[in-house]
Each structure stands twice: as C-alpha cells, then as structure tokens.
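re: that chain from earlier
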Amino acid sequence: MSDFQLGHRVTHAPDGRNGFVVGRVQGTGWNKALLPVAVEQSTRYELWPVTQVQLLPLAQQFTALGGEYIPPKGFPLFT
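^ sequence. v structure.
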C-alpha cells in the first residue's frame, strides 16, 4: 500500500483506465483499502481498491517522479 505516492500514474486493472494518485490510501476495514485517483480524460475522482490498481512503468511516470512522461496541455482533461 505504501508504494503509491501523490502524482503516481496508475491503471485500473479490471477496465484499463489510467489515472493518477491524488491522496493517501484509505483503510475501510481490516482487509480493504481504497486509493483516491483522478481519472485521466475525465473530471472524475474515484476510490479504487488497492488490490485492483497497478503502478504504470517508470517511463510513463511524470518527470518529477523520475519518469519521462510530459503531460499535454490541458492534462488530465484532454480528449
């Protein structure tokens, strides 16, 4: 759970949507945790189960986090 940092780009494993972390992991029970994520190409903020979230490779992370991804103008809301 501690692998996720603010701004990390992640993907939702069941449906393949990308997003980025906008908060800390929230525990909702003894075996459940939710991660607040802003969905790319949308105005939605969602809570994704940590077990269904995968960190994108380093090359696809923002430059501030050591990656090579430079967001386009209007990110994350571009279409």
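The CA atoms of residues 4 and 21 lie 7 Å apart.
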